[in-house]
Protein backbone atom coordinates (compact mmCIF):
# COMPACT_ATOMS: atom_id res chain seq x y z
CA UNK A 1 0.00 0.00 0.00
CA UNK A 2 1.05 3.52 0.77
CA UNK A 3 4.12 2.58 2.79
CA UNK A 4 5.41 0.45 -0.07
CA UNK A 5 5.03 3.28 -2.62
CA UNK A 6 6.61 5.70 -0.19
CA UNK A 7 9.60 3.40 0.36
CA UNK A 8 9.93 2.92 -3.39
CA UNK A 9 10.05 6.65 -4.05
CA UNK A 10 12.56 7.30 -1.29
CA UNK A 11 14.59 4.31 -2.43
CA UNK A 12 14.78 5.66 -5.99
CA UNK A 13 15.85 9.04 -4.72
CA UNK A 14 18.61 7.55 -2.61
CA UNK A 15 19.76 5.50 -5.59
CA UNK A 16 19.65 8.57 -7.87
CA UNK A 17 21.68 10.63 -5.42
CA UNK A 18 24.20 7.84 -4.99
CA UNK A 19 24.56 7.43 -8.75
CA UNK A 20 25.03 11.17 -9.26
CA UNK A 21 27.60 11.24 -6.48
CA UNK A 22 29.44 8.28 -8.03
CA UNK A 23 29.42 9.87 -11.50
CA UNK A 24 30.73 13.11 -10.08
CA UNK A 25 33.63 11.37 -8.34
CA UNK A 26 34.35 9.42 -11.55
CA UNK A 27 34.62 12.69 -13.47
CA UNK A 28 36.75 14.23 -10.73
CA UNK A 29 39.15 11.28 -10.97
CA UNK A 30 39.19 11.57 -14.75
CA UNK A 31 40.01 15.28 -14.76
CA UNK A 32 42.78 14.75 -12.17
CA UNK A 33 44.21 11.99 -14.34
CA UNK A 34 43.97 14.16 -17.46
CA UNK A 35 45.97 16.87 -15.72
CA UNK A 36 48.55 14.42 -14.44
CA UNK A 37 48.95 12.74 -17.84
CA UNK A 38 48.59 15.99 -19.80
CA UNK A 39 45.92 14.09 -21.71
CA UNK A 40 44.91 16.92 -23.98
CA UNK A 41 45.87 18.39 -27.32
CA UNK A 42 45.51 21.88 -28.72
CA UNK A 43 43.85 23.11 -31.88
CA UNK A 44 44.08 26.54 -33.46
CA UNK A 45 41.47 28.56 -35.33
CA UNK A 46 42.44 31.47 -37.58
CA UNK A 47 41.05 34.94 -36.91
CA UNK A 48 40.78 37.02 -40.09
CA UNK A 49 40.58 40.61 -41.18
CA UNK A 50 37.21 40.40 -42.93
CA UNK A 51 38.07 43.06 -45.52
CA UNK A 52 41.58 42.04 -46.56
CA UNK A 53 41.16 38.28 -45.92
CA UNK A 54 44.50 38.42 -44.13
CA UNK A 55 44.92 36.37 -40.94
CA UNK A 56 45.51 38.47 -37.81
CA UNK A 57 45.77 35.78 -35.15
CA UNK A 58 45.11 32.23 -34.03
CA UNK A 59 42.84 31.24 -31.16
CA UNK A 60 44.07 28.25 -29.18
CA UNK A 61 41.42 25.77 -28.05
CA UNK A 62 42.00 22.71 -25.91
CA UNK A 63 40.79 19.20 -26.70
CA UNK A 64 40.75 16.66 -23.88
CA UNK A 65 41.60 13.22 -25.15
CA UNK A 66 39.81 10.68 -22.93
CA UNK A 67 36.68 9.49 -24.68
CA UNK A 68 33.77 9.90 -24.98
CA UNK A 69 34.30 13.41 -26.31
CA UNK A 70 33.18 16.17 -23.99
CA UNK A 71 33.55 19.89 -24.70
CA UNK A 72 36.30 21.84 -22.89
CA UNK A 73 33.91 23.78 -20.68
CA UNK A 74 32.58 20.54 -19.16
CA UNK A 75 36.13 19.51 -18.30
CA UNK A 76 36.84 22.89 -16.74
CA UNK A 77 33.61 22.66 -14.70
CA UNK A 78 34.73 19.27 -13.36
CA UNK A 79 38.18 20.67 -12.69
CA UNK A 80 36.61 23.53 -10.78
CA UNK A 81 34.60 21.10 -8.67
CA UNK A 82 37.84 19.21 -8.00
CA UNK A 83 39.62 22.43 -7.07
CA UNK A 84 42.22 22.05 -9.84
CA UNK A 85 40.84 24.29 -12.60
CA UNK A 86 43.62 26.89 -12.37
CA UNK A 87 46.32 24.20 -12.38
CA UNK A 88 44.70 22.66 -15.42
CA UNK A 89 44.45 26.00 -17.22
CA UNK A 90 48.12 26.69 -16.51
CA UNK A 91 49.18 23.39 -18.07
CA UNK A 92 46.92 23.93 -21.09
CA UNK A 93 48.24 27.45 -21.62
CA UNK A 94 51.82 26.26 -21.35
CA UNK A 95 51.17 23.81 -24.16
CA UNK A 96 49.22 26.29 -26.29
CA UNK A 97 52.06 28.79 -26.09
CA UNK A 98 54.36 26.43 -27.97
CA UNK A 99 52.57 27.55 -31.12
CA UNK A 100 54.31 30.94 -30.91
CA UNK A 101 57.56 29.39 -32.11
CA UNK A 102 55.93 28.05 -35.27
CA UNK A 103 53.45 30.83 -36.08
CA UNK A 104 54.28 33.76 -38.36
CA UNK A 105 55.69 36.62 -36.25
CA UNK A 106 52.96 39.08 -37.24
CA UNK A 107 50.11 36.92 -35.92
CA UNK A 108 48.95 37.04 -32.34
CA UNK A 109 48.10 34.00 -30.25
CA UNK A 110 44.69 34.32 -28.60
CA UNK A 111 44.49 32.49 -25.28
CA UNK A 112 41.36 31.81 -23.24
CA UNK A 113 41.69 32.56 -19.54
CA UNK A 114 39.14 32.32 -16.75
CA UNK A 115 38.81 35.13 -14.19
CA UNK A 116 40.10 32.65 -11.59
CA UNK A 117 43.31 32.20 -13.58
CA UNK A 118 43.73 35.96 -13.96
CA UNK A 119 43.13 36.50 -10.23
CA UNK A 120 45.56 33.69 -9.34
CA UNK A 121 48.47 35.94 -10.28
CA UNK A 122 50.16 33.11 -12.19
CA UNK A 123 49.81 34.62 -15.67
CA UNK A 124 52.72 37.06 -15.52
CA UNK A 125 55.29 34.32 -15.07
CA UNK A 126 53.53 31.99 -17.48
CA UNK A 127 53.39 34.55 -20.29
CA UNK A 128 56.82 36.03 -19.60
CA UNK A 129 58.61 34.00 -22.33
CA UNK A 130 56.31 35.44 -25.02
CA UNK A 131 56.57 38.79 -26.73
CA UNK A 132 53.65 40.61 -25.07
CA UNK A 133 52.37 42.08 -28.36
CA UNK A 134 51.81 38.58 -29.66
CA UNK A 135 49.41 37.63 -26.86
CA UNK A 136 45.70 38.34 -26.75
CA UNK A 137 44.05 37.18 -23.54
CA UNK A 138 40.38 36.24 -23.93
CA UNK A 139 38.58 36.60 -20.67
CA UNK A 140 35.70 34.18 -20.43
CA UNK A 141 33.30 34.43 -17.59
CA UNK A 142 30.91 31.53 -17.56
CA UNK A 143 30.86 31.83 -13.81
CA UNK A 144 29.42 35.15 -12.74
CA UNK A 145 32.14 37.35 -11.34
CA UNK A 146 31.20 40.17 -9.01
CA UNK A 147 34.44 41.96 -8.61
CA UNK A 148 35.34 43.46 -11.94
CA UNK A 149 37.61 46.02 -10.34
CA UNK A 150 39.71 43.23 -8.91
CA UNK A 151 39.87 41.58 -12.33
CA UNK A 152 40.84 44.88 -13.98
CA UNK A 153 43.53 45.41 -11.33
CA UNK A 154 44.97 41.95 -11.93
CA UNK A 155 45.05 42.59 -15.68
CA UNK A 156 46.63 46.04 -15.41
CA UNK A 157 50.30 45.01 -15.12
CA UNK A 158 49.92 42.52 -17.97
CA UNK A 159 48.36 45.16 -20.17
CA UNK A 160 51.04 47.63 -19.21
CA UNK A 161 53.61 45.16 -20.51
CA UNK A 162 51.84 45.14 -23.90
CA UNK A 163 49.57 42.11 -23.61
CA UNK A 164 46.12 42.80 -25.03
CA UNK A 165 42.80 41.76 -23.58
CA UNK A 166 39.57 40.66 -25.22
CA UNK A 167 36.19 40.11 -23.63
CA UNK A 168 34.94 36.77 -24.94
CA UNK A 169 31.35 35.81 -25.75
CA UNK A 170 30.12 39.41 -25.59
CA UNK A 171 26.37 39.45 -26.02
CA UNK A 172 25.89 35.94 -24.62
CA UNK A 173 24.61 37.30 -21.34
CA UNK A 174 27.71 36.59 -19.29
CA UNK A 175 29.15 40.05 -19.70
CA UNK A 176 26.96 43.09 -19.48
CA UNK A 177 27.87 46.30 -21.27
CA UNK A 178 28.76 47.68 -17.83
CA UNK A 179 31.35 44.96 -17.39
CA UNK A 180 32.78 45.61 -20.83
CA UNK A 181 32.98 49.34 -20.11
CA UNK A 182 34.80 48.74 -16.84
CA UNK A 183 37.35 46.38 -18.33
CA UNK A 184 37.85 48.61 -21.39
CA UNK A 185 39.04 45.64 -23.48
CA UNK A 186 41.22 46.01 -26.58
CA UNK A 187 39.03 43.50 -28.40
CA UNK A 188 35.38 42.53 -28.07
CA UNK A 189 34.49 39.05 -29.29
CA UNK A 190 30.86 38.90 -30.37
CA UNK A 191 29.27 35.69 -29.22
CA UNK A 192 28.20 33.38 -32.01
CA UNK A 193 24.57 33.71 -30.94
CA UNK A 194 24.78 37.24 -32.41
CA UNK A 195 26.49 36.04 -35.57
CA UNK A 196 23.95 33.31 -36.17
CA UNK A 197 21.39 34.43 -38.77
CA UNK A 198 22.55 38.03 -38.59
CA UNK A 199 21.75 38.11 -42.32
CA UNK A 200 18.11 37.09 -41.89
CA UNK A 201 17.12 38.34 -38.43
CA UNK A 202 16.58 42.14 -38.27
CA UNK A 203 16.75 42.24 -34.46
CA UNK A 204 20.13 40.55 -34.42
CA UNK A 205 21.31 42.87 -37.16
CA UNK A 206 20.31 45.86 -34.99
CA UNK A 207 22.15 44.41 -31.98
CA UNK A 208 25.33 43.88 -34.00
CA UNK A 209 25.07 47.44 -35.36
CA UNK A 210 24.77 48.71 -31.79
CA UNK A 211 27.87 46.72 -30.84
CA UNK A 212 29.76 48.22 -33.78
CA UNK A 213 28.96 51.72 -32.46
CA UNK A 214 29.80 50.69 -28.90
CA UNK A 215 33.15 49.24 -29.99
CA UNK A 216 33.96 52.32 -32.05
CA UNK A 217 33.15 54.59 -29.10
CA UNK A 218 35.31 52.56 -26.71
CA UNK A 219 38.08 52.12 -29.29
CA UNK A 220 37.89 48.35 -29.19
CA UNK A 221 38.28 46.06 -32.20
CA UNK A 222 35.31 43.78 -32.85
CA UNK A 223 35.78 40.10 -33.65
CA UNK A 224 32.73 38.09 -34.70
CA UNK A 225 32.72 34.46 -33.59
CA UNK A 226 31.10 31.46 -35.21
CA UNK A 227 30.73 32.69 -38.80
CA UNK A 228 29.30 29.68 -40.61
CA UNK A 229 27.81 31.00 -43.83
CA UNK A 230 28.61 33.42 -46.63
CA UNK A 231 25.45 35.35 -45.74
CA UNK A 232 26.57 35.90 -42.15
CA UNK A 233 30.05 36.83 -43.34
CA UNK A 234 28.84 39.38 -45.89
CA UNK A 235 26.34 40.98 -43.50
CA UNK A 236 28.97 41.35 -40.77
CA UNK A 237 31.30 43.11 -43.23
CA UNK A 238 28.45 45.36 -44.35
CA UNK A 239 27.64 46.27 -40.71
CA UNK A 240 31.26 47.25 -40.09
CA UNK A 241 32.58 44.30 -38.09
CA UNK A 242 36.30 44.25 -38.85
CA UNK A 243 37.50 40.81 -37.77
CA UNK A 244 36.05 37.34 -37.51
CA UNK A 245 36.44 33.61 -37.22
CA UNK A 246 34.23 30.58 -37.77
CA UNK A 247 33.81 27.35 -39.68
CA UNK A 248 33.19 29.33 -42.92
CA UNK A 249 36.69 30.84 -42.56
CA UNK A 250 38.55 27.88 -41.04
CA UNK A 251 37.82 25.30 -38.37
CA UNK A 252 39.93 24.81 -35.28
CA UNK A 253 42.58 22.30 -36.35
CA UNK A 254 46.04 20.99 -35.58
CA UNK A 255 48.63 23.75 -35.90
CA UNK A 256 50.26 22.37 -39.06
CA UNK A 257 46.87 22.25 -40.82
CA UNK A 258 45.92 25.75 -39.65
CA UNK A 259 49.24 27.05 -40.94
CA UNK A 260 48.36 25.68 -44.37
CA UNK A 261 44.93 27.35 -44.24
CA UNK A 262 46.34 30.79 -43.39
CA UNK A 263 48.88 30.65 -46.24
CA UNK A 264 46.05 30.90 -48.72
CA UNK A 265 42.64 32.44 -48.00
CA UNK A 266 40.00 29.77 -47.39
CA UNK A 267 38.32 28.33 -50.44
CA UNK A 268 35.01 29.70 -49.25
CA UNK A 269 36.28 33.23 -49.95
CA UNK A 270 37.56 32.55 -53.45
P1 LIG B 1 35.21 30.24 -26.97
O1 LIG B 1 36.51 30.77 -26.50
O2 LIG B 1 34.11 31.19 -27.22
O3 LIG B 1 35.58 29.40 -28.24
C1 LIG B 1 34.81 29.35 -29.40
C2 LIG B 1 34.12 28.03 -29.56
O4 LIG B 1 33.36 28.03 -30.75
C3 LIG B 1 35.07 26.86 -29.70
O5 LIG B 1 34.43 25.74 -29.09
C4 LIG B 1 35.15 26.65 -31.21
O6 LIG B 1 35.51 25.34 -31.59
C5 LIG B 1 33.73 26.97 -31.60
N1 LIG B 1 33.58 27.44 -32.97
C6 LIG B 1 34.45 28.14 -33.73
N2 LIG B 1 33.90 28.46 -34.91
C7 LIG B 1 32.64 27.98 -34.90
C8 LIG B 1 31.56 28.01 -35.86
O7 LIG B 1 31.63 28.57 -36.95
N3 LIG B 1 30.40 27.42 -35.48
C9 LIG B 1 30.27 26.78 -34.27
N4 LIG B 1 29.09 26.20 -33.99
N5 LIG B 1 31.25 26.75 -33.35
C10 LIG B 1 32.43 27.35 -33.67
P2 LIG B 1 35.22 24.82 -28.09
O8 LIG B 1 36.58 24.57 -28.61
O9 LIG B 1 34.32 23.67 -27.81
O10 LIG B 1 35.38 25.70 -26.81
C11 LIG B 1 34.31 26.09 -26.03
C12 LIG B 1 34.76 27.01 -24.93
O11 LIG B 1 35.65 26.34 -24.03
C13 LIG B 1 35.55 28.19 -25.44
O12 LIG B 1 34.67 29.14 -25.93
C14 LIG B 1 36.30 28.61 -24.19
O13 LIG B 1 35.46 29.36 -23.34
C15 LIG B 1 36.58 27.28 -23.52
N6 LIG B 1 37.94 26.85 -23.87
C16 LIG B 1 38.35 26.20 -24.97
N7 LIG B 1 39.69 26.00 -24.95
C17 LIG B 1 40.14 26.58 -23.81
C18 LIG B 1 41.44 26.71 -23.22
O14 LIG B 1 42.46 26.28 -23.75
N8 LIG B 1 41.50 27.37 -22.01
C19 LIG B 1 40.38 27.86 -21.41
N9 LIG B 1 40.52 28.49 -20.25
N10 LIG B 1 39.16 27.74 -21.95
C20 LIG B 1 39.02 27.11 -23.13
MG1 LIG C 1 37.59 32.29 -26.84
MG1 LIG D 1 33.81 33.05 -27.49
MG1 LIG E 1 31.72 30.78 -26.79
Structural commentary:
- It comes from Kaistia geumhonensis.
- This protein is globular.
- The mean pLDDT is 93.
- It has 11 helices and 8 strands.
- The protein has an 8-stranded mixed barrel, surrounded by 6 helices.
- The protein has helices spanning 2-37, 72-81, 85-96, 115-120, 123-127, 148-160, 177-183, 192-195, 202-217, 230-239, 255-263; strands spanning 40-49, 55-64, 108-113, 135-139, 164-170, 187-190, 221-224, 243-244.
- The protein is α/β, with parallel strands linked by helices and 270 residues long.
- One magnesium ion is lined by residues 59, 112, 138, 168.
C-alpha-based Rg, rounded: 21 Å
- Count of runs of 4 or more consecutive helical residues: 11
SSE-based structural type = alpha/beta
Shape: globular
End-to-end gap: 73 Å
Mean pLDDT: 93
SSE pattern, N- to C-terminal = HEEHHEHHEHEHEHHEHEH
Protein name: EAL domain-containing protein (Putative c-di-GMP-specific phosphodiesterase class I)
Organism: Kaistia geumhonensis
Domain EAL: 24-266
Characterize this entry briefly.
Helices cover 47% and strands 18% of the residues. With 270 residues, the chain is α/β, with parallel strands linked by helices.
Topology record:
Layout: H1 2-37, E1 40-49, E2 55-64, H2 72-81, H3 85-96, E3 108-113, H4 115-120, H5 123-127, E4 135-139, H6 148-160, E5 164-170, H7 177-183, E6 187-190, H8 192-195, H9 202-217, E7 221-224, H10 230-239, E8 243-244, H11 255-263
Parallel strand pairs: 2-3, 3-4, 4-5, 5-6, 6-7, 7-8
Antiparallel strand pairs: 1-2, 1-8
This protein binds ligand C2E and magnesium ion (3 copies).
Protein name: EAL domain-containing protein (Putative c-di-GMP-specific phosphodiesterase class I)
Domain EAL: 24-266
Amino acid sequence: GFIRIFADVIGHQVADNAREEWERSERTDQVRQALEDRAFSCVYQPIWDLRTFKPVGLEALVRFLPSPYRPPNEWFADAEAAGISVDLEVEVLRREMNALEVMPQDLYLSLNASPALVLSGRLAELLAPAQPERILLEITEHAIIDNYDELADALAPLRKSGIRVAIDDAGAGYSTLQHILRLAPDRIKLDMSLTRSVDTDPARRALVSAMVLFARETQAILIAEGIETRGEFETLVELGVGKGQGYFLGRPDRLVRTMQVIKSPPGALA
